[in-house]
Amino acid sequence: MTAQAPGALPMVVPTEDLPPRVRIHEVGARDGLQNEKATVPTEVKAEFVHRLADAGLTTIEATSFVHPKWVPQLADAEALFPLLDDLARTKGTHLPVLVPNARGLDRALALGARRVAVFASATESFAKANLNRTVDEALAMFEPVVARAKEAESAHDQVHVRGYLSMCFGDPWEGAVPIAQVVRVCKALLDMGCDELSLGDTIGVATPGHVQELLAALNEQGVPTDRVGVHFHDTYGQALANTLAALQHGVTTVDASAGGLGGCPFAKSATGNLATEDLVWMLHGLGIETGVDLGRLTATSVWMADQLGRPSPSRTVRALSHQEQ
């Protein structure tokens, strides 16, 4: 974390038993923009990602290689990804992309993507709504995708695969989701070759005790904490509390979206993602390093909000930029 001037805020007060550094997995350019009603021009998306990188974010989810019919806002993946090539070459920025199937993977690999993600569900209802498959049918679809990604590795060129798991804490159709059910799908994703998991609170209903209980259950079934990231939505104002609970358990990868952009187009009760600025404010106050320049990040979200024609929902962005609420 950059040294602060005397009297600077937030005041740094470290807390015991928290990780010294957290890697923020920035999802605003993909998960955030895919939920916009209007399609953002490709050049604006590229500028957004570059500004996020200039603010110090090192993992920025760039786009999704899904069929344009399902997510038209990201139909320009082939045009966008080459515009970000300089970030991978000069800054070493990781630019993961979502790949829903083998066709999407082939499109991504052809453009040089070396970090990809698949998107599974812990519940049958959401698997049906999102993928038109059962949970097990979706896993069967992803297995050859993950295997193909791993086959594309070489001695000096690895392909990192992330497994997103949605509805880990609650489902709008099924209600509470049994922890054992979530653990089963997590283990299946790791067993097929995923390098990392992202536990999604898709509709924002998690609470801190629930978070720690799920993480403990994963550990008991042999899933190490260092293979797990967390992805919280702030529907009930619990995202930061849940993040702190995960940090206390040892999690060091946290998903967040610049300016709080996003939600989920297939889960209507889902509101925005945890805002990256709100997360950084808390982490820096705890003395946890992120490598992020909060001022630059805030300026980026203000700029993006102007492009979208509305103020940022992030409380930290509004406070630091003196926007009217």
UniProtKB/TrEMBL annotation:
Domain of life: Bacteria
GO aspect biological process, one term: ketone body biosynthetic process
Keyword set, alphabetical order: Lyase, Metal-binding
Sample GO molecular function, one term: metal ion binding
Xref: InterPro entries: Aldolase_TIM (IPR013785), HMGL (IPR043594), PYR_CT (IPR000891)
Pfam families named among the record's database cross-references: HMGL-like
The keyword Nucleotide-binding belongs to this UniProt entry's keyword annotation: no
Limits of the Pyruvate carboxyltransferase domain: 22-298
PANTHER family, per database record: HYDROXYMETHYLGLUTARYL-COA LYASE
Family in the record: Belongs to the HMG-CoA lyase family.
NCBIfam families hit by this protein: PRK05692.1
Protein name: Hydroxymethylglutaryl-CoA lyase
Species of provenance: Streptomyces alboflavus
